[in-house]
Amino acid sequence: xxxxxxxxxxxxxxxxxxxxxxxxxxxxxxxxxxxxxxxxxxxxxxxxxxxxxxxxxxxxxxxxxxxxxxxxxxxxxxxxxxxxxxxxxxxxxxxxxxxxxxxxxxxxxxxxxxxxxxxxxxxxxxxxxxxxxxxxxxxxxxxxxxxxxxxxxxxxxxxxxxxxxxxxxxxxxxxxxxxxxxxxxxxxxxxxxxxxxxxxxxxxxxxxxxxxxxxxxxxxxxxxxxxxxxxxxxxxxxxxxxxxxxxxxxxxxxxxxxxxxxxxxxxxxxxxxxxxxxxxxxxxxxxxxxxxxxxxxxxxxxxxxxxxxxxxxxxxxxxxxxxxxxxxxxxxxxxxxxxxxxxxxxxxxxxxxxxxxxxxxxxxxxxxxxxxxxxxxxxxxxxxxxxxxxxxxxxxxxxxxxxxxxxxxxxxxxxxxxxxxxxxxxxxxxxxxxxxxxxxxxxxxxxxxxxxxxxx
Length: 456
Ligand code: SAH
Ligand code: SF4
Ligand code: F3S
Hints:
The chain is α/β, with parallel strands linked by helices. Among the domains are: 2-144, Rossmann fold; 160-274, Transcription Regulator spoIIAA, CATH 3.30.750; 399-454, CATH 2.40.50.140. The protein is 33% helix and 21% strand. It has helices spanning 29-44, 68-87, 103-112, 128-138, 183-187, 195-207, 233-241, 261-269, 286-291, 298-311, 330-343, 370-393, and strands spanning 2-3, 20-25, 48-49, 58-63, 92-97, 118-120, 142-144, 153-154, 165-169, 171-172, 191-192, 212-216, 248-252, 276-278, 316-323, 347-352, 399-407, 415-418, 424-428, 437-445, 450-454. The protein has a six-stranded parallel beta sheet with strand order 3-2-4-5-6-7, sandwiched between helices. A five-stranded mixed β-barrel has the order 17-18-19-21-20. Strand 2, helix 1 (29-44) and strand 3 form a beta-alpha-beta unit. Helix 7 (233-241) runs parallel beside helix 8. The longest helix has 24 residues, at 370-393. The structure holds S-adenosyl-L-homocysteine, iron/sulfur cluster and FE3-S4 cluster. FE3-S4 cluster (F3S) binds at residues 27-28, 30-31, 64-66, 98, 182-183, 186-187. S-adenosyl-L-homocysteine binds at residues 66-67, 180-181, 183, 218-219, 253, 255, 280, 282, 320, 322, 351, 353-354, 356. GO terms for molecular function: tRNA-2-methylthio-N(6)-dimethylallyladenosine(37) synthase activity. Its cofactor is [4Fe-4S] cluster. This is tRNA-2-methylthio-N(6)-dimethylallyladenosine synthase. Keywords: 4Fe-4S, Cytoplasm, Iron, Iron-sulfur, Metal-binding, S-adenosyl-L-methionine, Transferase, tRNA processing. It is found in: Cytoplasm.
């Protein structure tokens, strides 16, 4: 473990009264967290957040490469930034994140978009202040992609969006190498943070008004296997459950092959751990799961689901599903649809398989034609939406505990918050209850949210 040191951060904004930055983030919470850290470091260096990219002195694109469309968005943005840079040659443009962690990508970007000032990957993001100083002082570009991950760097300043709830990363990287997935190549092997550092971070958040934490990792169920002595994820849940002032604990992502009974029991037992499990299935066909290297069968997945339903009554179950994996037959796909019907998911992230260079599945024969992938995707989305709507309808008339997060996004006369099961609720209520746990009577269910009224 390394400790982030503040003395390396020299500010290069001497010549201007107030320099500003704008960060565009794609991808998952791992990237979100990295952006919060970049923002934290920049604020320590005296920068302020710009309202939009047109007014910023520094623009950072934090990229994702999990699917091709994530990469295409970055290219689109870079095209537009070229004009901004022409108008303001002082503008600094930086690229980081998972897409940049691939050396060939970084080289390609420098070739196609030579106006980019700085590129770094996920392994060395904590060195960003040093790179920024180099660019400012020498006005030359910095491209640095580290080949192997650093240990864990603690103490990097984090600039979090909400004070009421926070994401807390408990482990980095992934050891699973699902054959379609690029994440292990761009985020490295599993590294767990010490339970003490996690607890201290959460206690500090709670002292600033945080009531809910979501513990993050690509596979939180293998948390602590690399620590000496080993710490089980269920033990970590129990320790965090004892933190005074914290009200709710969530976690993601669970891998079906590692979700053990002790974790399910801990969720059932710990009063602060919410009844919500995100359990990506990817496919309902054992044949495809094998080719994906997921290490569980359809039957094993379903028996896990039944165990969860039995031990954690009313738990919301959500998932990730992919269609069009190489070799997926119509029968395999129908197995997925049937599994979705059988489980009755509260919601699901649905994806079209995207070939990723360097992953085994990219070289598999029997790649599925695009039109079939899209047709299957549309059929899947329909079934998933029906399932979500059915699950949401069951909330009508119920009274739910809500953690009030703020004003509704689309209607500022209403408040918004979530149930313990993670359902988004818009409701009429008292503005003074923001940050509080209250009771809301649910009057109506929509496909992706619920409507209600505060009763206490
Ligand atoms: N660690 C988590 C999530 C990782 S990425 C897990 O194992 O579940 C989030 C989701 O993106 C995955 O669950 C998967 O459904 C999807 N995904 C990953 N690689 C993909 C690819 N090449 N094409 C399409 N979807 C992909
Ligand atoms: Fe990717 Fe699989 Fe790791 Fe998830 S568990 S990040 S899908 S390799
Ligand atoms: Fe996340 Fe995308 Fe990287 S999904 S881990 S930001 S490749």
